[in-house]
Amino acid sequence: MIDRIEQLRSEAEGEIGAAATSEELEQLRVRFLGRKAELPQLLRGVAQLDPAERGKVGAAANAARQALEALIEERTAQLAAAELSAGLVHDAVDVTLPGAPAQPLGSLHVLTSTRRELEDIFLGLGFTVMEGPEIETVHYNFDALNHSPTHPARARTDTFYVQRSGEGPEVVLRTHTSPMQVRAMEAHPPPLYVVIPGRVYRPDSDATHTPQFHQIEGLAVDEDITLADLKGTLLSFARAVFGETRDVRLRPHFFPFTEPSVEVDVSCFHCSGKGFMADGSRCPLCKGEGWLEVLGAGEVDPNVFAFVPTTAANAPGYDPEKVQGFAWGLGVERIAMLKHGVPDLRMYFENDLRLLGQF
Ligand code: DAH
């Protein structure tokens, strides 16, 4: 029995010494010292041995087990150290290599930069910037802007209704920034010079209409305001945006909240207002017209002033006998399209870096 113990011991010592990985070592530990291995079983059987044998066999088996345990521990430490240094060499990171290419910072969306450019122009003319709600009551969106009860813009097909009448006030997604005219006058006494940028919503979708777009409303109310003031203001705007040699022309139009109402054209900056190019071909931008339509405007209809209640906030209020005003509404997308030659309005909202990266 002692021989068998010595045999097991030298066999185990040989294999443990030769183990190349800590996994292999663990397998050897199970094989020689695990619960079902021969040596531990032998140790467990010592009690049943003949008393004369018991002492010697027990001592030899115990010695063998302790020796193997110590050997395994020693080899484990050696192999772990070797594996760690091999791992460090293999996984080494060269911290002196340059990093991944720096990500570009990006830029403002062209609609944002256009809006800011326009705001700056009007700030320079003495206007202040205000904002207002995109979810708006029919009162401000239509009624207080002098729209007749049957005005076609009120149709369910032309306006996004959020809440029907009967459940409180009738509520829409504002179809234009004009409702802020009355809100601004309710909040401030005259004289008033404000521009209101913001999102507006209409159920249209094609190359020149998106369900959501941006406008900038302008409103000036003071004493002795005439259409000439409107024209001068918009001429400054047109020259700042499209070039110093631009001209503007007003064409009669109709809006419920202005009287008279006009559509405003800017002389084409692509053909210098001639309508044709140097080679005699028709100007592709203004389609030979020489003029580009840019916005709607007019003199504030006295009926709109009558919709503005006099309160502590706006005292002495807006008396149509005392004050006059002019207003305009322009589309930010349209200005940016004209300026940068963007062919399809939907491109602004597709988030395609090939477009965004150009601005
Ligand atoms: N609100 C009009 C629209 O969305 C634009 C407009 C026209 C605004 C004339 C005005 C104005 O302030 O005076 O089509």
List keywords for this structure.
three-stranded antiparallel beta sheet, BirA Bifunctional Protein, domain 2, alpha+beta, 2 domains, binds 3,4-dihydroxyphenylalanine, elongated, 359 residues
Describe the structure.
The protein has 359 residues and is of the alpha+beta class. The protein has two domains: 2-90, no CATH class; 110-356, Bira Bifunctional Protein, Domain 2 (BirA Bifunctional Protein, domain 2). The chain contains eleven helices and ten strands. The protein has helices spanning 2-18, 22-33, 38-44, 51-90, 110-124, 138-141, 179-187, 227-242, 302-306, 332-340, 353-356, and strands spanning 128-129, 135-137, 161-163, 171-173, 192-201, 212-222, 248-255, 258-267, 291-300, 324-331. It has a seven-stranded mixed beta sheet, with helices on both faces. The protein is elongated and about 130 Å long. The N and C termini lie far apart (90 Å). The mean pLDDT is 93. It binds 3,4-dihydroxyphenylalanine. Residues 176, 178, 217, 255, 258, 296-298, 327-329 line the site of 3,4-dihydroxyphenylalanine (DAH).
Biggest sheet record: 7 strands, mixed
How does the helix and strand content classify structurally?
Answer: alpha+beta
Categorize the overall geometry.
elongated
The CATH H-level homologous superfamily of the largest domain? Bira Bifunctional Protein, Domain 2
Bound molecules: 3,4-dihydroxyphenylalanine
Low-pLDDT segments = none
CATH topology of the largest domain: BirA Bifunctional Protein, domain 2
Task: Give the percentage of residues in beta strands.
Answer: 15-25%
Number of strands: 10
Which value, in Å, is the CA radius of gyration?
43 Å
Strand order of the largest sheet: 1-5-6-10-9-8-7
Mean pLDDT score: 93
Which CATH class of the largest domain is shown?
Answer: Alpha Beta
Percent helix range: 25-40%
Number of helices: 11
CATH architecture descriptor text of the largest domain? 2-Layer Sandwich
Q: What count of structural domains?
A: 2
Distance between the termini: 90 Å
Order of helices and strands: HHHHHEEHEEHEEHEEEHEHH
